[in-house]
Amino acid sequence: MLVVDLLRLLHTNAHFTRLELEEQQAYSKSGGGWFIRHLADLTMKPESARKENNPFYFAQCPGRYEPEKEDKYLRTLQRYYSGEKKRLISKYRAQYWLSNLDRDRLLSYLETGFHLDRRQDWLEIFRANGFEVSVSKTPELIADLLTQGLANLAQGDPQINDLKWNPSLFEATKESLAEEDFFEVRFSSLKASDIFVADGMLHVGSRKVALPESFKCDDATKYRSRRFIDQACLAFSEDAGQNITVEEIGNAPEQYQEDYADYIQCFHTAMSILALMREVSVDGEEEFDRIKLDLLSALKPVLRRKQGNTYDKLNDALAESTRALLTKSHVPQTTGLFDNDARKGVCHSLADTSHITWVTTPPQTVGSNDE
Predict the structure, then answer these.
(1) ∠ Cα 269 201 261 (to 5°)
(2) If 165 and its partner were Cys, which of 5, 56, 210, 309 is the partner (CB 3.0–4.6 Å)?
């Protein structure tokens, strides 16, 4: 099995926003090279994925980020994706991706970036190609395969393993995915009365999806390496006058432990709602982004405030997020879906995607002998 086989499987079955589809098709008909860089961005540690640190945006390595040349390497990635001989992801870039791979972010993407029926298709695809796996363990298998594949690419080896892979199995799903999307609704075209919760289901136009019994986060560890948690720990440290890290949060003063648990729960609630929005609508992620930017605008007076420390400002922003009048989307007004935890979670997601920086950290430096 080649690494590119796995990348094609993910690309073929991924759910994209309209903007993302337009972006990838602007570079090539298939958009495969764009997707490889997109996947790297989504699965690296946030600071490592930033353009100024990320060699997938460099024209060459060693090198530096030049905005006018940030897409030059996409041509090489597209040739690799298309199967041109002797075209691989460079050893340095593969090693950088591997060294900065955030498994929690990767698993989160595998759980939220694909339609449910596509994730179920993976089970049959992998079994047909010789893998013994269950539905619940398929994302873990993909994460393991990608990790091994990057390690091999860093040594110049294009294979993950010696298993023969049949590409026709996942190529066959491509047209059915496009047909499915055609019939899906768009949040942007709906009235407030078209979005509601009833009998444990979220109704969005003609579509509906089952709500979980609760949005309780059962595994806080999967968010430990997220940027919003790193930023929160820096704010805790500044307020406490001592170094508080995610690894030692259990030894921190009780108020920070409580905040840490609350921040994760709220973020998890927001991410769960995002997953539902992606599932039920073609523009679910775009709608969530509209909510984020609407909240960011509402928080600007707090963010610009000079007095007080960072920890106070963070918690004031969270409090303001529960009061903010959000009008760019009908979703925040949906009773039974979007509560105060969700609003605070959206605030944390702004920190996670670098729209908000509570404590500035120095940029990473990049250097290599790879070409």
Answers:
(1) 15
(2) 5
- Given a contact cutoff of 8 angstroms between Cβ atoms, the answer to whether 140 and 106 are in contact is no
Residue at 57: amino acid letter: Y
Angstrom CA distances, 94 to 14, 72, 83, stand at 21, 17, 17
Q: On the CB side of 368, how many CA atoms lie within 13 Å of its CA? A: 20
Separation between Cα atoms, residue 270 and residue 159, nearest integer Å = 37
Neighbours of 365 (CB within 10 A): 7
For residue 299, give both structure tokens: 């928080």
- Model confidence at 18, pLDDT cuts 50, 70, 90, reads low
pLDDT band at 176 (very low <50, low <70, confident <90, very high): very low
Distance CA 30, CA 299 (A): 39
- Token pair, residue 47, equals 């600071």
Average pLDDT of the chain, as a whole number = 86
pLDDT at residue 180 in the model = 41
List 208's β-bridge partners, or say none. Answer: 203
Q: How many CB atoms lie within 10 A of CB 282?
A: 23
The two three-digit tokens of residue 273, written as one number: 């709602």
Lowest mean pLDDT among 123-132, 185-194, 254-263: 123-132
The neighbouring-strand residues paired with 44 are: 101
Q: Are the C-beta atoms of 175 and 198 separated by less than 8 Å?
A: no
Helix locations, the chain, DSSP H: 3-13, 18-27, 32-43, 46-49, 74-82, 91-99, 103-112, 116-128, 138-153, 168-171, 174-182, 227-240, 254-280, 284-303, 310-323, 340-352
Distance in angstroms (rounded) separating the CA atoms of residues 371 and 59: 10
Quick: pLDDT tens for 279-335. Answer: 888 888 999 999 999 999 999 999 998 777 899 999 999 999 999 999 999 999 999
What is this structure's pTM? 0.55
How many CB atoms are closer than 10 A to CB 74?
A: 21
84-119: b (≥16 Cβ within 10 Å) or e? eeebbbbbbbbbbbbebbbebbbbbbbebbbbeebb
235 residue type, one letter = A
